Amino acid sequence: MKRNFQNARKAKSFSPTQIILLGFLGVILAGTVLLCLPIATASGQPAPFIDALFTATTSVCVTGLVTVETAGYWSLFGHIVILLLIQCGGLGIISFTTATLLILRKKVTLRDRILLEEAFNLSSLRGLLRFLKKVFKGTFIVEGVGVIFSAFVFVPEYGAKGIWYALFHSISSFCNAGLDLLGPDSLIAYDGNVLLNLTTIFLIVAGGLGFPVWWNIIDSIRYMVKEKKSFRNGLRKLHLHSKIVLCFTAGLILTGAIFIFLLEKGNPGTLGGRPLPKQILMSVFQSVTLRTAGFCTIPQQNLTDAGAFISMLLMFVGGSPIGTAGGIKTTTAAVLVLSVIALIRGRQETTVFGRTISQETLRKALGVVMISIAAVGAALFAMLIFEEGSFVDLAYEVISATATVGLSRNITPGMGNAGKLIIILCMYLGRTGPISLAIALGKKKDQRGKVSFPTEEVPVG
Length: 461
Known about the structure:
By secondary structure, the protein is mostly helical. It contains 20 helices and two strands. A hairpin with a 2-residue loop joins strand 1 and strand 2.
């Protein structure tokens, strides 16, 4: 009898991954209810459930795709709800839950710590609460800097309301959400505004690098100043994770900007006919926003097919782990690229910066990529069945949703309910992580892993 009770209790318990998935779902549903209230819309009429659900999902999953115009459709109450959902989704439901426990001076249990470790994809519980406090402190400082610089643009144009616009824009940029209060054209009207472009780029990159990289960079700078060490010695203090993130992020941004510039400079619908400095600025911004931010200074529907293809590749990679960005993550892509390079060179181990990457890491990276490709493929197949549009437009929408980017070729508002539901699922899956969902749905750990079988070579390639 006692054994049966224990088995039943165990069956009802949820793993940390499952609780995180349910946490995101719970906040999405709560946001949907609030956005369905008449007070949430500018017209005073209740929003259709599917549009409220879509908006809540795109906010919590910090994506940016919208079926209704954010600026004109929602009221001030609706905008506040959306902003809170963005901030909550950007930092993670578990982070806010644990922070609330700290503020209320409640005891943070071992289970809470495990949840937080899972949410941030960390490998140790040591110093977890200290890490959380630093995350919130750093977030509000960076967002505050973004508000100040954005206000220099918005206040002269909108008056006192410009402060609210600056706050909304700063939080949305840092959380890589891509939602704004400027109308249906995102930042296209500001494509030549250097201050707003650079401020937005800074916020996007800061959010996308990941919090551990921040602290590692700060510690390295402190080491150089305190110990009066050279820049080269300071670089040695950077962890392997930070080195890979910084190098791969810089490489992707530079490569993406070059490709966008070369492919679109003769296209009058994007860069063509504009002064060279403006073309460079717009190319860099497009490359950065593909890190999963969702803002745009180039009409995405006007991109050439080649430009759209490059954009989809960059969107699929996304930002870096333990940050606010989506995608398969820069480290995942870097590990696979380095593995291929090692294979080509005939090396048995994958090495970088004098360190060897473990086989377990390679397996995880391959698993993330394969599950993500499968998710994108399944969603695209469903969209081709239920929605009208070109293959490029639908693929762009699906990848943008799954990577939580938020860029669209202007087809989101015209989608039917089936298409909206598919994109909602893509955004949720993209934010929580395809591999997390696969782990959460797994009922049992494969016990065969404890048994060793004979090795036999299988021809590949």
